[in-house]
Write a structure and sequence with these properties.
Layout: E1 3-9, H1 22-29, E2 33-39, E3 52-53, E4 63-64, H2 66-75, E5 83-92, H3 95-103, E6 106-111, E7 116-117, H4 119-124, E8 128-131, H5 141-152, H6 162-170, H7 200-218, H8 220-232
Parallel strand pairs: 1-2, 1-6, 4-7, 5-6, 5-8
Antiparallel strand pairs: 3-4
The structure holds 4-(1H-imidazol-5-yl)pyridine.
Residues 86-88, 112, 131-133, 136-137, 139-140, 143 line the site of 4-(1H-imidazol-5-yl)pyridine.
Length: 233
Amino acid sequence: MTWRASVLTLFPEMFPGPLGHSLVGRGRETGVWSLETLGLRRFTSDRHESVDDTPFGGGAGMVMRADVLAAALDAVAPDDRPRIVLSPRGRPLDQRRVQALAAGSGIVMVCGRFEGIDQRLIDARDLEEVSIGDFVLSGGEPAVFCLLDACVRLLPGVVGSEASLAEESFAAGLLEYPHYTRPRVFEGLTVPDVLLSGHHERIRAWRLAEAQRLTRERRPDLWAKLEASSEAQ
Ligand code: 4F9
Protein backbone atom coordinates (compact mmCIF):
# COMPACT_ATOMS: atom_id res chain seq x y z
CA MET A 1 0.00 0.00 0.00
CA THR A 2 1.18 3.47 -0.90
CA TRP A 3 1.72 5.82 2.06
CA ARG A 4 -0.23 8.99 1.23
CA ALA A 5 0.76 12.58 1.99
CA SER A 6 -1.60 15.49 1.29
CA VAL A 7 -0.41 19.09 1.70
CA LEU A 8 -2.62 22.19 1.84
CA THR A 9 -0.55 25.22 0.91
CA LEU A 10 -0.64 28.68 -0.62
CA PHE A 11 2.47 27.69 -2.56
CA PRO A 12 1.87 24.31 -4.25
CA GLU A 13 4.75 25.09 -6.65
CA MET A 14 7.19 24.62 -3.72
CA PHE A 15 6.44 20.87 -3.91
CA PRO A 16 7.88 18.28 -4.24
CA GLY A 17 11.00 20.51 -3.96
CA PRO A 18 13.57 18.68 -1.83
CA LEU A 19 11.19 15.70 -1.59
CA GLY A 20 11.72 15.05 -5.31
CA HIS A 21 15.40 14.20 -4.80
CA SER A 22 17.57 11.42 -3.47
CA LEU A 23 16.09 8.39 -1.70
CA VAL A 24 12.81 10.12 -0.84
CA GLY A 25 12.31 11.21 -4.47
CA ARG A 26 13.08 7.67 -5.68
CA GLY A 27 10.54 6.30 -3.21
CA ARG A 28 7.89 8.52 -4.75
CA GLU A 29 8.78 7.35 -8.27
CA THR A 30 8.50 3.73 -7.21
CA GLY A 31 5.14 4.26 -5.51
CA VAL A 32 6.25 3.69 -1.92
CA TRP A 33 4.60 7.02 -1.10
CA SER A 34 2.51 9.61 -2.93
CA LEU A 35 2.22 13.38 -2.64
CA GLU A 36 -0.97 15.35 -3.28
CA THR A 37 -0.77 19.16 -3.06
CA LEU A 38 -3.86 21.35 -2.78
CA GLY A 39 -3.35 25.03 -3.58
CA LEU A 40 -5.51 27.07 -1.21
CA ARG A 41 -6.47 29.77 -3.76
CA ARG A 42 -8.65 27.20 -5.52
CA PHE A 43 -10.88 27.08 -2.45
CA THR A 44 -11.61 30.79 -2.14
CA SER A 45 -15.08 32.09 -2.95
CA ASP A 46 -14.55 35.81 -3.53
CA ARG A 47 -13.29 37.76 -6.50
CA HIS A 48 -10.01 38.61 -4.75
CA GLU A 49 -9.32 35.00 -3.82
CA SER A 50 -8.63 36.03 -0.21
CA VAL A 51 -7.19 33.35 1.98
CA ASP A 52 -6.47 35.68 4.90
CA ASP A 53 -8.00 38.62 6.72
CA THR A 54 -7.26 41.05 9.56
CA PRO A 55 -7.48 39.67 13.11
CA PHE A 56 -10.59 40.29 15.24
CA GLY A 57 -9.42 42.27 18.25
CA GLY A 58 -6.84 44.09 16.19
CA GLY A 59 -3.10 43.71 16.03
CA ALA A 60 -0.46 43.28 13.38
CA GLY A 61 -0.51 40.78 10.56
CA MET A 62 -3.13 38.62 8.92
CA VAL A 63 -4.96 35.43 9.88
CA MET A 64 -5.76 32.53 7.54
CA ARG A 65 -9.50 32.11 7.08
CA ALA A 66 -11.21 29.04 8.57
CA ASP A 67 -13.73 28.71 5.72
CA VAL A 68 -11.09 28.50 2.97
CA LEU A 69 -9.00 25.96 4.88
CA ALA A 70 -12.09 23.91 5.77
CA ALA A 71 -13.14 23.74 2.11
CA ALA A 72 -9.67 22.49 1.16
CA LEU A 73 -9.58 19.94 4.01
CA ASP A 74 -13.04 18.67 3.09
CA ALA A 75 -11.87 18.16 -0.50
CA VAL A 76 -9.33 15.62 0.78
CA ALA A 77 -11.26 12.35 0.90
CA PRO A 78 -12.21 11.73 4.54
CA ASP A 79 -10.06 8.89 5.84
CA ASP A 80 -8.19 7.77 8.94
CA ARG A 81 -5.06 9.83 8.32
CA PRO A 82 -4.00 12.26 11.08
CA ARG A 83 -4.52 15.93 10.16
CA ILE A 84 -1.55 18.02 11.22
CA VAL A 85 -0.83 21.73 11.20
CA LEU A 86 2.84 22.69 11.45
CA SER A 87 3.19 25.39 14.09
CA PRO A 88 5.75 26.52 16.67
CA ARG A 89 2.87 26.21 19.17
CA GLY A 90 2.59 22.47 18.59
CA ARG A 91 3.92 19.49 20.46
CA PRO A 92 7.62 19.06 19.64
CA LEU A 93 8.19 16.40 16.98
CA ASP A 94 10.36 13.45 17.98
CA GLN A 95 11.46 10.18 16.38
CA ARG A 96 8.81 8.19 18.25
CA ARG A 97 6.00 10.29 16.73
CA VAL A 98 7.68 10.01 13.31
CA GLN A 99 7.73 6.21 13.65
CA ALA A 100 4.04 6.15 14.58
CA LEU A 101 3.13 8.35 11.60
CA ALA A 102 5.23 6.24 9.20
CA ALA A 103 3.48 3.12 10.49
CA GLY A 104 0.06 4.53 9.54
CA SER A 105 -1.49 5.10 6.12
CA GLY A 106 -0.18 8.66 5.67
CA ILE A 107 -0.83 12.24 6.83
CA VAL A 108 -2.69 15.38 5.83
CA MET A 109 -0.76 18.59 6.53
CA VAL A 110 -1.75 22.26 6.61
CA CYS A 111 0.91 24.92 5.99
CA GLY A 112 0.25 28.13 7.87
CA ARG A 113 1.25 31.52 6.52
CA PHE A 114 0.76 35.02 7.90
CA GLU A 115 0.45 35.37 11.66
CA GLY A 116 -1.57 32.23 12.13
CA ILE A 117 -4.71 30.23 11.43
CA ASP A 118 -8.24 30.95 12.70
CA GLN A 119 -8.54 28.85 15.87
CA ARG A 120 -12.00 27.59 14.85
CA LEU A 121 -10.50 25.64 11.95
CA ILE A 122 -8.10 23.86 14.33
CA ASP A 123 -11.02 23.07 16.68
CA ALA A 124 -13.66 22.18 14.08
CA ARG A 125 -11.41 19.87 12.03
CA ASP A 126 -9.54 18.45 15.01
CA LEU A 127 -6.07 19.41 13.78
CA GLU A 128 -3.02 18.28 15.71
CA GLU A 129 -0.42 21.04 16.06
CA VAL A 130 3.16 19.82 15.60
CA SER A 131 6.36 21.85 16.01
CA ILE A 132 9.74 20.95 14.52
CA GLY A 133 11.61 23.29 16.89
CA ASP A 134 11.53 26.48 18.90
CA PHE A 135 11.96 28.93 16.05
CA VAL A 136 9.71 30.77 13.62
CA LEU A 137 9.64 30.12 9.87
CA SER A 138 8.07 32.32 7.19
CA GLY A 139 5.53 29.54 6.68
CA GLY A 140 4.83 25.90 7.39
CA GLU A 141 6.21 24.52 4.09
CA PRO A 142 9.83 23.91 5.20
CA ALA A 143 8.48 22.18 8.32
CA VAL A 144 6.39 19.91 6.06
CA PHE A 145 9.57 19.03 4.11
CA CYS A 146 11.20 18.00 7.40
CA LEU A 147 8.24 16.00 8.71
CA LEU A 148 7.70 14.17 5.40
CA ASP A 149 11.39 13.39 4.91
CA ALA A 150 11.60 11.94 8.42
CA CYS A 151 8.52 9.73 7.85
CA VAL A 152 9.23 8.61 4.29
CA ARG A 153 12.79 7.43 4.98
CA LEU A 154 11.32 4.92 7.44
CA LEU A 155 8.98 3.36 4.87
CA PRO A 156 10.09 -0.11 3.71
CA GLY A 157 12.22 0.12 0.57
CA VAL A 158 13.23 3.79 0.80
CA VAL A 159 16.53 3.62 2.68
CA GLY A 160 18.59 0.88 1.01
CA SER A 161 20.30 -0.70 3.95
CA GLU A 162 17.99 -2.13 6.58
CA ALA A 163 21.13 -2.33 8.72
CA SER A 164 21.45 1.43 9.05
CA LEU A 165 17.84 1.75 10.24
CA ALA A 166 18.31 -1.17 12.63
CA GLU A 167 21.43 0.40 14.12
CA GLU A 168 19.55 3.66 14.49
CA SER A 169 16.76 2.08 16.50
CA PHE A 170 19.34 0.23 18.62
CA ALA A 171 20.89 3.56 19.50
CA ALA A 172 17.48 5.21 20.00
CA GLY A 173 17.65 8.06 22.43
CA LEU A 174 21.41 8.60 22.12
CA LEU A 175 23.26 11.03 19.87
CA GLU A 176 25.44 9.39 17.24
CA TYR A 177 29.07 8.52 17.95
CA PRO A 178 31.80 10.21 15.80
CA HIS A 179 32.57 8.72 12.37
CA TYR A 180 35.86 8.52 10.44
CA THR A 181 36.95 7.37 6.98
CA ARG A 182 40.01 7.70 4.70
CA PRO A 183 42.47 9.35 4.62
CA ARG A 184 43.98 8.03 7.85
CA VAL A 185 45.68 11.37 8.47
CA PHE A 186 43.83 14.61 7.62
CA GLU A 187 45.61 17.94 8.30
CA GLY A 188 47.74 16.13 10.87
CA LEU A 189 44.67 14.67 12.61
CA THR A 190 44.59 10.90 13.08
CA VAL A 191 41.81 8.39 13.66
CA PRO A 192 41.20 6.88 17.15
CA ASP A 193 43.40 3.74 17.37
CA VAL A 194 40.57 1.50 18.50
CA LEU A 195 38.78 1.95 15.14
CA LEU A 196 41.84 0.55 13.32
CA SER A 197 42.25 -2.36 15.74
CA GLY A 198 39.79 -4.72 14.06
CA HIS A 199 38.58 -5.61 17.58
CA HIS A 200 34.78 -5.50 17.09
CA GLU A 201 33.82 -5.75 20.74
CA ARG A 202 36.14 -2.90 21.73
CA ILE A 203 34.89 -0.79 18.82
CA ARG A 204 31.29 -1.32 19.94
CA ALA A 205 32.16 -0.36 23.51
CA TRP A 206 34.05 2.76 22.38
CA ARG A 207 31.16 3.91 20.17
CA LEU A 208 28.61 3.39 22.91
CA ALA A 209 30.78 5.30 25.42
CA GLU A 210 31.20 8.18 22.93
CA ALA A 211 27.46 8.27 22.20
CA GLN A 212 26.75 8.40 25.93
CA ARG A 213 29.36 11.12 26.55
CA LEU A 214 28.02 13.29 23.72
CA THR A 215 24.43 12.87 24.89
CA ARG A 216 25.33 13.74 28.49
CA GLU A 217 27.34 16.81 27.43
CA ARG A 218 25.08 18.22 24.73
CA ARG A 219 21.58 16.97 25.56
CA PRO A 220 21.08 16.67 29.29
CA ASP A 221 17.33 16.56 28.52
CA LEU A 222 17.68 13.36 26.45
CA TRP A 223 20.10 11.89 28.98
CA ALA A 224 17.65 12.44 31.83
CA LYS A 225 14.89 10.69 29.84
CA LEU A 226 17.16 7.70 29.20
CA GLU A 227 18.14 7.45 32.85
CA ALA A 228 14.49 7.61 33.88
CA SER A 229 13.52 4.85 31.44
CA SER A 230 16.42 2.54 32.38
CA GLU A 231 15.56 2.95 36.08
CA ALA A 232 11.96 1.99 35.28
CA GLN A 233 13.10 -1.33 33.77
C1 4F9 B 1 6.26 25.15 12.21
C2 4F9 B 1 7.94 26.52 13.17
C3 4F9 B 1 6.78 24.09 12.89
C4 4F9 B 1 8.42 25.41 13.83
C5 4F9 B 1 5.15 27.56 10.87
C6 4F9 B 1 5.95 29.58 10.98
C7 4F9 B 1 6.84 26.40 12.34
C8 4F9 B 1 6.27 27.56 11.64
N1 4F9 B 1 7.83 24.23 13.68
N2 4F9 B 1 6.75 28.81 11.71
N3 4F9 B 1 5.00 28.83 10.47
